[in-house]
Write a structure and sequence with these properties.
Elements lengths: L4 E3 L1 H6 L6 H16 L3 E2 L2 H14 L5 H11 L9 H14 L3 H12 L4 E3 L8 E2 L2 E4 L6 H6 L2
Parallel strand pairs: 1-2, 1-3, 3-5
Antiparallel strand pairs: 4-5
Helix pairs in contact: 3-4, 5-6
């Protein structure tokens, strides 16, 4: 992994989710690898969404554990989330047709100069302004990572 990888909220949640052991393992490994290689990029939006899902929507872990997890990931939340990101998100939404929250996340990743956007929720292989969307649960994921 040489390029910056933006990791979507769903991957952060799967890393703790006991429901699907394979997704949990893949997600946790991806987080460990990107942290170790200093290629992980997150957005404050993804941390906030993660906290809400972990503590309210799915109640996967207690509040204090969720806060600790978010604190652990916070140093990697360097993708911008500001007025410039909103402007870029409008352009992404117009071009790609994605929903608002996905457009905002994609814009944040683009503004952070990420080459790969890792998500299960978006169309694998899609390219947006030079950034590729890759699903980590597909057989082609390793190839996408090595091209980043």
């Amino acid at each position: 992994m040489t390029g910056r990888l933006f990791v979507d909220t769903n991957i952060l949640i799967y890393a703790l989710d006991p429901v699907d052991p394979r997704k949990r393992s893949v997600s946790a490994d991806l987080l460990r690898q990107t942290i170790s290689s200093h290629t992980l990029i997150l957005s404050p939006q993804s941390l906030n969404e993660c906290y809400r899902v972990l503590t309210q929507r799915r109640r996967l872990i207690p509040v204090e554990e969720a806060r600790g997890y978010v604190r652990l990931l916070a140093p990697w939340a360097v993708a911008p989330l500001d007025a410039g990101t909103t402007e870029r998100a409008w352009a992404v939404q117009n071009t790609v047709g994605s929903n608002w929250w996905d457009s905002l996340m994609l814009a944040s990743a683009l503004r952070a100069d990420c080459r790969l956007f890792v998500s299960e929720d978006m169309a694998d292989g899609t390219t947006i302004d030079g950034m590729r969307v890759a699903n980590p649960f597909t057989p082609n994921f390793e190839r996408a990572v090595t091209r980043s």
